Records
---
Amino acid sequence: MVMANPSEIFGSHVFDLRTMKKRLPKETFKALKSAIENDEKLGLADANTVAHLMMEWALARGATHYTHLFQPMTGLTAEKHDAFFNFDYQFGSIEGFTGKELIQGEPDASSFPSGGMRTTFEARGYTAWDPSSPVYVMINGDVTVLCIPSVFFSYTGHALDKKTPLLRSNKALNREASRALKLLDGRDVKVEASVGVEQEYFLVDKKYFDQRPDLVMAGRTLLGCPPAKGQQMDDHYFGSIKDRVLSCMEEIETRLYKLGVPCKTRHNEVAPHQFEMAPIFEPANLAADHNQLVMEVIKKVARGRGLAALFHEKPFAGVNGSGKHINWSMQTSDGANLLEPGKEPHRNLVFLYFLVAVLSAVHKRGGVLRSTIASPGNDHRLGANEAPPAIVSVFLGSHLSKILDQILAAEKLTQSVVASIDLGLAQLPEIRVDTTDRNRTSPFAFTGNKFEFRAVGSSQSVSFPITVLNAAVVESLNEMNDELEKIGQIGEKSILKLLRTYIRRSQPIRFEGNNYSAEWAEEAARRGLPNLKTTPEAFSVWQDPDVRAFVIRTGFLNEQEMDSRYHVRMEHYCNILSIEAVLTLRLVNGHVLPPCFRAQKEVADSISAVKAMGNAALAESLSNQEEFLADLTSNIGHLLVKRNNLQACLDEVIAMEDEVAKAHAFAQQVAPLMGEVRNYCDQLELVVDAEAWTLPSYHELLFLM
């Protein structure tokens, strides 16, 4: 396919402000724009006008149904389709869509995770249109649906989704960041979190994917011997993109451009068949919605081209896992990036104020941030093959670190301006040096004019990590603003004095070295930084009274909503581990043991046949075959023991009634046993006839496309 010019098709399937301005009456458009920008309610009369013109626009593009899209606590996007169909007063069939239908929907809430807030006989739940995220039409084949981004809440008014807490945290961030700017330099502007989400994923041939029950149901290979060549040659990273993949990427980007997603970058990632795409920065809420769209479109386009997209954090052992890097900054309504250092960051007090606020936030709430990216998949990824470890720390780079150290030491700030690089080649332009290098081992790194939260898992919704990051910064800004207001006359000296306190307090979170090293783990412990290695450990922070007070105080969740998320995530972890353990047992019984038994018999029959020939010299040469048979038999025996141990342990853990104890038992008992089972399966794969092995190998999955 020939890709259209992005600027010509961008947003063509989106009913955004630009489109609405052309179609809506001036007063209606003005009311809607005010509702979006000032967090006001839209009147029903205006909503009816918007809904009617929105329907006409969608019908002209082939839509027959509409849906309120929402993000339940499953982490996926949910939808229920309703037809543009009504009766007139004479019971004649007509197309219809009212303001009430636009503003509010009513899906069944009982079958979505609620953590005990709702029961089956209390099923009523509502979706409500989020006008800050544009409506669009999604075209799949010959079916077109009008999609309305929405929040999801219960009959009792509790948030059952991931969007509502994000919107609350955005509102709080605007309040405290705007307050800070008013105090610092008198500016009266709005502030919002600005986010760009890098998305990593694998593509494999669907014919091999379909033959792997573990990939189909668990998203990762529970068994599989690594190939002789993996990623050790570093020849896939930024390499030439295969034609089949490039064509798939072009279609993905074309669809996303039409949906208003500003795709910018695509490239091969480190592992074979691993890729990445990244967009231009957007407001946090829109970035979160768009990332959900990105995953959906990648899956659908890949499927249509005979490929399967994998978003699991660790689909293949022995090669890089996949992450989702959240690039986060703060943008003012007049276009200023508050984390832009400028040429002289040491003189930029606004930049330093917000930089220190973020440092303080991550230091104080690092454990909560760690919990937001905890998942069974990320347990396999964190700390291995370029993924950052579970210990949250911040990398600033030597340039900014020196500035903060100077402030702390009360020295006169004399940091030089940002330099340039001279490669000694006159024909090349001057290359500007960033204020910080990159540290790929750091989970939270400053990367020029933003922070990059690198520890987020590739399959996760980014809504909750952004929510908690926003809230943590809100908490820090609130404390700093309160102290700043107490100062009679605000000036450079008083601001630096305040910053000095917070720089000193947050020093333990700053680390410039190798986050993979054993020395860092020991040093982090001395600094008092949490090292929450498993998902249940990470979730436990939500029971800490100080964390609960932080959540309630910043207002992104109330107490019931907080408890529900704790229970939902514990239950989700147990369900995932249970599925994986059952799958492992079935793979062993149905795919591993049968070819191993046949191989055992073939070798034994071969030895017996040679002995039956009665040739003593030949019989004496069978020692290597007999040793091979002994090793094969020993591995089969060990596998059977480990399989039985796993089954017994799984039965015992599933029977547990205490949810928390069950989650920890899955992490500490079931998961290690699954690893032991896998070890023997992978050893057996190496010696069993490849033609007899029914599961497609890593060679097929990672190198054939």
---
Amino acid sequence: MGKRGRKRKRASHAASATDPRRAQRTPSEHGLGWLVALVAAVLAAYSPALEGGFLWDDDAHVTGTELRSLAGLWRIWTDLGATQQYYPLLHSAFWLEHRIWGNAVLGYHLVNVVLHAACAWLLLLGLRRLGVSGGLLAAAIFALHPVHVESVAWISEQKNTLSLLLYLGALLVYLRFDDGRRPRDYLLASGLFLLGLLTKTVVATLPGALLVLLWWRRGRLEGRRDVMPLLPWFALAAAAGLLTAWFERRLLGAAGASFAFTLAERCLLAGRVVWFYAGKLVWPSDLTFIYPRWEVNVPAWPHALYALAAVAALAAAWAVRRRSRAPLAAALFYVGSLFPALGFVNVYPFVFSFVADHFQYLASLGPISAAACGAFVLLQRQEGARRRVFELACVGLVALLSVLTWRQSHDYRDVRTLYERTLARNPGCYLCLNNLAAFSLAAGDTEAAAARYREVLRLKPDSVEALSNLGNLQLKSGRVQQAIESYESALQIAPNNVVARTNLGIAFFTAGRVPEAIAQYEAALRIMPDYQPARRSLELARAAARR
């Protein structure tokens, strides 16, 4: 074959990577058979976690006793404080699951696995509809990448898997609307988008992502055709974002000294966060449940370099947009989808770390799809033995990711294993130290528990929980005055902490200082009138005072 023949052949292979007509000639690539295969592969990779128990805040997501009735389901939708976060569709799903299998953890794990595999399948369908080849490789990488273990093996993160399913469903239907302009497609896509927002607020990034995809397809955006239909979606996204920001700040406590950053510091933080997540996608080593929390100060040259590198990468993608819009589209999708977790908006997990694997669950679709498409183009350009080697490399990559996911899933077998593995990779994780102290107490080792609480206070002197727990341990051991001092230290940091205030009252009562105990119980009830431990303790203290 001459040079011209080889050039024509390569050009045809490259065109097939983004030709919708060519892509639609192989419908078997997105049939139900691939969905079954994806479910089986994900089940095998996540098998170590399937029998795992409830983890950190799973008990706040799995439906509590007070919400298990039909009236409780109504409260999930109408009472902002009924659940840990106002995601009523998510908690309705948990409500339904609890009706089916109660507290049996296997059921929740299986739902998460199936949802994750279904998301990978919808990713394949979406890439095929966009005319992007390499969709099967992208779906396999997404389904089996170890960076997603936290989202799939942790029951609480059903918010990720369910919301992404709705996100991709809305995206697919909207693309169909964009092709045919049928009102019923628009209404269905809007309904799926709204349901996604009611599952997790990160779905609010979808209208921006759609504009990026439409620009990538046509090279331009038209106000009437492209922007106007998405304006209601942007309004819904803004409302959902404001509600979540209020909820995080007011009800979850995402405020105070731990969140006191200037705009410049937040920009520096965002630059490092973007590269951190990209690095974990490329080289998924040392994945852990809670990463070390960085210090962000201005000036900080390492952070500034990350930010400058991010700007430079976007500038480079912009510079080559006339040759290929794909790099800029992938970068905009990735950064835009990560925006809620970049540090510009306060979210409670930032107390422990600025990054978490589950924060990039949705955003990872962009770079994974771009990399898979690039690999497919390179594969189509190979011939003979080189082509077979390249195919084996792709299969080997998916197999390697499966093994890494299987290994990472072992961390999620039970909560103690999770804390111990996290602490091994992040020795400064005071949350793990504090929670592991409870296991020491259960084993009767009060000295080990006290040592862990003191280590927490060394790492984080303002840890109200550690001070309260240390006070509980001291009170139980008969060191009443030390317990009083621990509770008072906790209340100096958080005067409205009703648990610490009630425990201080119990310590005063134990020491025979009944009037002071009554004053603490009354103060706790002024903060939270329905707090039953304080109410019961107050009744006992008043009875003792009368005697």
---
Amino acid sequence: MKITREIKTAILVIASILLFIWGYSFLKGADILSSDKTYYVEYDNVEGLPPSAPVTVNGFVIGHVKKISLNNKTGKLLVELLITNEDFPIAKSSTVNIYEPGVIAGKQLQIVPNLQDTQIAQSGDTLRGANVPGLTALLGEKLEPIQQKLDRVLSELTITITSVNNVLDKKSQENLKGTIGELNATMTQFHKASNSLNGILDNNKAKIDNVVTNFEKVSSDFNKISSDLEKAELDKAVESLKGTLARVDNLMTSIDSGKGTMGKLVNDDALYNNLSKTSRELELLLQDVRLNPTRYVNVSLFGKKNRPYVAPKVQDSIPK
């Protein structure tokens, strides 16, 4: 059978049309020759979700967003998903979350599979959708109370500054400025003194090193003396001191018991009374000698007779 030119032309036109359809579908992200699956998800808000956003399962990309349209019946946004990887079976009760993987990256879709459900979703089924707060939203929630507190602090600070300005009159402000100026001058003087001290330390560094060296030498000598004292025969000195104290204790015991001369002097009341009486008589004698010296020492050039003896009166004490 001979193929005519008209048949060849018709076949070429049909092939071109099919090739055009396939190319157009391929450019739109759909391959009519593949077994990709399409799912639908409804959301109340898809803000930040771009078309052709990746669809992931546990971070692995298995497809992308094909189309986002408005459902006029429900008023919700209908997102069409194109799943190109068939290695991950998706259960019909799985959830598709809109999430934000990072602060800079845009939003994506995350399929959370329900491994307990054995009913696999077919192409064209509608899955359940949810919104997961991203890092930006969480950061905004955390920063909002901080912003409120900061606004409150700034407001109170403004009130405080206004109150201080009202309290401080022009004279007080000038005095405050003067005080700050004097403080600045003081700090300048302190800086100069610090520089002078650093210069003195630098100039006398050798002397300071010698002082430190001498101190270390003295410390070493002191340690040596301490070591020598530790090696000294202190035990013998302590034993000798104990013997001496024992002998003193025996002596005191003998005195208390009345032995020896000291014991008799300490414990004999008669001897004490005799000594006291003798001391009293000696006191009277010395008193009489002082009052009547001519009675005991009489030098007469003309043979004058002595006066008769008159006993002195007993006095309580010797007159001053």
---
Amino acid sequence: MAAPPWTAANGPMDFATLRHLYRARQQTPADLVAAVHRRIRASDLPNVWIALVDERIAVDQALALEKTAQARGMAEFPLYGIPFAVKDNIDVAGMMTTAACRDFAYRPAASSPVVEKLLAAGAILIGKTNLDQFATGLTGLLSSFGPTRNPFNPAFISGGSSSGSAIALAAGLVSFALGTDTAGSGRVPAAFNNLVGIKATPGLISTRGVFPACRSLDCLSLLALNVQDASELMALAKGFDPQDPYSRPDASDFDPSMLQLPVSRFRMGVPAPGQLEFLGDPEARSLYQAAVARLEKLGGRRTEIDLSPFLDAGKLLYDGPWVAQRLASIDAFHAAHPESLTPATCAIMDRGRLPSALDAFKAMDKLARLRAVAAAQWALMDVLVLPTAPRAFTIQEAAPDPAAASAKLGLYTNFVNLMDLAAVALPAGFTSQGMPFGISLIGRRLSDANLIALGQRFFPARSGGLLGAPPLAHPEPPTDADEPTLPESERPRQTLLCVVGAHLSGQPLNHQLIGLDATLVKRTRTAPHYRLFALSGTTPPKPGLLRVPDGDNNGPGAQAGCAIAVEVWSLPERNVGAFLARIAPPLCIGNVQLENGQWVKGFLCETIALTGAQDISKFGGWVPYLAAAANHSAPRAAAAH
């Protein structure tokens, strides 16, 4: 059934929907900001926000964005008019940072560099959200500003510590949200709120401007309504920060679309029987098993692994000396104002005074040994598939001892940063009580692109069902009929562009076209005069299309041309320059003839790039080649897509 028409009261706010509304002139960023504030006022969810940007200021910022975009073009703002929220342990210039402790609040002189990047990309900040105090906890119950509750079932916890960010997004009050994730603080609330949560490889996204929870393990997390939106945020947020001592020097060169394994065929690590705990919830177990079965249908080969080194590493986070690093960030404040912390937070922080330097070095040695043991398990798998949390707790269950509840909720998340891993949390169904359940795809460091690509296949952006919480639904893809009929003089001029590889629908660079307001016109083939080659040394892997002489003009040993599967996209002329600037050699744009005789602009490659390239013309296209290469265990660099 098609989703109902978008309304300012409850329409979904994923990126594709808002971009369509803006292109169709059905909304402006200023209109949307006003609508968001009306939604916030109408919401009955308690304690989501710690501070809101004044509505008049936010509307003025949106109007200024509209004016600037008219002069410079919307292509300059990949997040044009997209509203977002920020967890209140992340600095925003001009707003207090509280870390959910009223007496601790301070006013930062500058914003987190990630916040600055998002604002520069055209995103509009709505406000700062509630959290478990000092990001210590996974329940959403520990805050000076009051506990939160789940938007799906108010008897349940929201998950934490990024509780307010997850609720604001699930409730349709923003399009994405920033959280933090040291031990699962972004992934657990994502699971309990039907959201996608990216916890990147530590160091890929700067944590400067994030008040530390456990400094050496902290990560900034990205919460979104679908994987495509989260992937776009990853591309904008990542990057080396020389002022962050934990930033990775290679972060700026890392491409979130850089794949290392064929996501159409992959080894899927699943714990041995008896190593998975669902805390007595058979529905959670069934939902996990169904998710694994779905991944098998997508090409996963189930491989039984030993989860014990991962679980043992996770125990070090709170039972080992790393709890002392949590205390280190607030030691002086805690000593002077112990009453300002919730009792549960205070109890955790006080445990940080117990470990000795001897304990710390022993724990570091133990972690190194566990990483070595885990390496043998990684040799068996490409991705580890786990429940994000064993099950959701009711508020009644968690409130008497939130720290104990958090320890159980973090069973499958606590080890990830200690072991320098990447993770993507994905929605994976609902229980009979209406609570979302989620799984996590976990990979080795810098495997983020693999996890994102596989996540897009498991949870496609337009999959039917809910976006966040009811009544928000996945929108139907906009059609040409949805666009307004404008006078010829007002219609944007378009350029037809033929794509053959990494820019195809579902491929890693397709977001570049979507981000520049391109629309798919048709899937077709070239005229029968081309050869297709798998190029070597390109990131992400790409093919090269080459026109060859016709018929008898082929030289000795040359092969005749054939028709190659392609897509034709319509790109606004105002954005052509921005797109061309992203094309790296050996690819170039030239003229390509389609099977109907039409000539359009399209991707070709320089002949010098064919040295060492594999002729894959017999497959008839890039996607069929990828599938065949994966099924025959082709080299990973060639088989990835």
